C-alpha cells in the first residue's frame, strides 16, 4: 500500500499486458458518500494531467467497490522535505502549487483541501501532483456580496420583522457533482420571519408576542444566552482539514471563494519556512481562531467578521507577529534577543522566557534586511496569509511575482558573449 487519503487507500499495481509499467490504484472507501466519489472522478477526468494535477487512466466498479487507476507518482514524505529544504526549493514548490491553483481557479473550481499530503513532490525528478478532489466544488458567485450590510447586524441579534407574505416559496441551490451545473429546487413553502441576509431564521420565535426576544443578553459578552441557544444554527460548508481552514470558514461565512485555497497554500508554505509540520494543531474552530489571531492579529479577524455581520470576541488582543522573526525562531528552535522586550509576547508564545518581542510592527524592517530571493517569497507568503479574502492575493498574481523575480535574476546574471544565462542558485 502506498498510502491513504480522505476517501480511500492507494496501492501500487503493475500492468499485466505491459510488465514493468506501474500505476497507483485508489480503492474508494465503502462508506464514502456517492457525491464525493462522483466529484473526484469528474475532476480527474476533466482536468487530470494538466497543470500539476494527478492524471487518471480509468475508473471502474466491482460490485460495491470502486477503483481509480492513477498515474504512479513516487514522492518524498513532507516530513523529510521540511527538514532540509532550501530557499530556491521553497520557491519552486510555491510556484508549482500556485500553478495548479491558478488553473483550477480560472475554471471556477475550488479544491477545498489544500495541504502538504495532497500535493505530492518528487525531489529527484522535480515533479509535482495535486490529488484528492473529493471535497472540491464549482464556485458560483453569490449575490450576498452585492447586498448592502444593514447598519446593525450581528449573529447575536434576534430582532426581526415578519414577512408581509403569509407563505414564501423556499428555494435551495444544488450543485450537480457530475456536470457542475447549479439548479434551483423548491423545498417547501415556509414562513420567513427574517428576510435580511445574515440573520438567523427561526419558526419557533415570535417577536410580536414576546418583545423580550428583540435583543439577546450576551451581545458583546463572553457567554451564550438562552435566546441564542434557541436560534437555528447557520449551515455553511466547512469541508477541509481543520489546521488549514481559511478565516472565512472558521467564522462560518456563507461567502466562500477560491481565495480559501490560497490561505491553505499559505499555511503549507509557512510550514516549509518554519520547518515544522503541522504548524497549528487546534482542537476545534474556536481554538484555531485564537491561534491564528495571535499570529496574524486579532483586530484583522474582528474587522473581517464585523464586515460579514458577525461579532467576534478574543480572550485578549494581539497585533500579530513579525513573520520573519517568527520563522527564524521556529526554524532555529530558539529565540533571539530582539529589542525591546515584550511581556505580551512572553505570555503568548511558549518557550519565550527572554520576552523576545515578535509584534508585527517590525515586520517591514525585518523583510528589508533579507536577501532578494527571501524577500520575494516572504512577500508572497504575506499575500497568501491575508485575513480578508478580498485582499488576499490570487494564485495568478502571486505566481506572477515569483516568475518576475526569476526573470530579473536571469537578466542580472547574464554574461555578455556567453552562450547561455547563468542562474543564481540559492
Describe this structure in words.
With 426 residues, this protein is of the alpha+beta class. 33% of the residues lie in helices and 14% in strands. The chain has three domains: 3-71, 2-Layer Sandwich (Phosphorylase Kinase, domain 1), CATH 3.30.200; 78-137 and 238-412, Transferase(Phosphotransferase), domain 1; 156-233, no CATH class. The chain has helices spanning 34-47, 78-84, 87-106, 226-230, 247-250, 259-274, 285-296, 298-307, 323-332, 343-348, 363-368, 372-384, 395-412, and strands spanning 3-4, 8-14, 22-28, 56-62, 65-71, 109-110, 119-122, 127-130, 137-138, 168-175, 182-190. A five-stranded antiparallel β-sheet has the order 1-2-3-5-4, with helices on one face. The longest helix is centred in the first third of the chain and has 20 residues, at 87-106. The two termini are 36 Å apart. Mean pLDDT is 80; it is low at 143-172, 185-214 and 418-426. It is an enzyme of class 2 (transferase). Belongs to the protein kinase superfamily.
In short:
With 426 residues, the chain is of the alpha+beta class.
According to CATH, the homologous superfamily of the largest domain is Transferase(Phosphotransferase) domain 1
- Count up the helices: 13
* Second rung of CATH, namely the architecture of the largest domain: Orthogonal Bundle
Oligomer: single chain
| Rounded Rg | 25 Å
The overall number of domains is 3
List the uncertain runs.
143-172, 185-214, 418-426
Shape: globular
C-alpha termini separation: 36 Å
The CATH class of the largest domain is: Mainly Alpha
> How much strand?
5-15%
How are the strands ordered across the major sheet? 1-2-3-5-4
Amino acid at each position: 500500500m502506498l498510502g491513504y487519503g480522505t476517501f480511500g487507500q492507494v496501492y501500487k499495481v503493475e500492468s499485466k499486458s505491459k510488465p514493468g509499467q506501474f500505476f497507483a490504484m485508489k480503492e474508494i472507501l465503502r462508506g464514502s458518500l456517492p457525491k464525493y466519489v462522483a466529484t473526484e472522478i469528474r475532476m480527474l477526468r476533466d482536468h487530470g494531467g494538466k497543470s500539476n494535477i494527478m492524471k487518471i487512466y480509468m475508473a471502474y466498479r466491482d460490485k460495491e467497490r470502486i477503483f481509480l487507476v492513477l498515474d504512479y507518482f513516487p514522492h518524498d514524505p513532507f516530513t523529510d522535505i521540511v527538514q532540509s529544504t532550501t530557499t530556491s526549493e521553497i520557491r519552486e514548490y510555491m510556484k508549482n502549487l500556485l500553478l495548479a491553483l491558478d488553473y483550477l481557479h480560472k475554471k471556477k473550481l475550488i479544491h477545498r483541501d489544500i495541504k502538504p499530503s495532497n500535493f505530492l513532490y518528487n525531489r529527484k525528478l522535480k515533479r509535482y501532483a495535486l490529488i484528492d478532489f473529493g471535497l472540491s466544488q464549482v464556485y458560483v458567485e453569490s449575490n450576498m456580496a452585492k447586498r448592502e450590510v444593514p447598519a446593525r447586524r450581528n449573529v447575536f441579534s434576534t430582532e426581526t420583522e415578519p414577512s408581509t407574505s403569509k407563505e414564501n416559496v423556499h428555494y435551495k441551490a444544488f450543485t450537480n457533482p457530475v456536470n457542475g451545473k447549479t439548479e434551483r429546487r423548491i423545498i417547501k413553502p415556509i414562513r420567513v420571519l427574517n428576510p435580511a441576509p445574515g440573520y438567523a431564521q427561526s419558526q419557533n420565535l415570535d417577536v410580536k408576542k414576546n418583545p423580550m426576544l428583540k435583543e439577546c443578553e450576551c451581545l458583546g459578552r463572553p457567554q451564550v444566552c438562552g435566546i441564542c441557544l434557541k436560534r437555528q444554527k447557520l449551515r455553511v460548508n466547512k469541508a477541509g482539514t481543520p489546521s488549514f481552514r481559511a478565516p472565512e470558514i472558521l467564522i462560518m461565512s456563507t461567502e466562500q471563494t477560491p481565495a480559501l485555497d490560497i490561505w491553505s497554500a499559505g499555511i503549507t508554505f509557512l510550514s516549509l519556512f518554519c520547518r515544522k509540520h503541522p504548524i497549528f494543531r487546534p482542537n476545534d474552530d474556536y481554538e484555531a481562531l485564537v491561534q491564528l489571531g495571535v499570529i496574524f492579529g486579532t483586530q484583522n479577524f474582528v474587522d473581517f467578521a464585523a464586515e460579514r455581520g458577525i461579532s467576534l470576541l478574543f480572550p485578549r488582543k494581539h497585533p500579530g507577529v513579525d513573520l520573519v522573526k517568527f520563522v527564524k525562531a521556529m526554524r532555529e528552535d530558539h529565540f533571539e534577543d530582539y529589542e525591546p522586550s515584550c511581556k505580551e509576547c512572553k505570555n503568548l508564545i511558549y518557550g519565550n522566557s527572554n520576552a523576545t518581542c515578535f509584534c508585527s510592527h517590525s515586520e517591514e524592517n525585518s523583510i528589508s534586511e533579507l536577501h532578494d530571493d527571501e524577500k520575494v517569497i516572504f512577500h508572497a507568503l504575506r499575500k497568501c496569509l491575508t485575513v480578508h479574502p478580498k485582499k488576499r492575493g490570487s494564485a495568478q498574481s502571486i505566481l506572477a511575482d515569483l516568475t518576475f523575480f526569476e526573470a530579473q535574476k536571469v537578466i542580472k546574471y547574464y554574461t555578455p558573449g556567453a552562450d547561455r544565462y547563468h542562474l543564481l542558485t540559492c
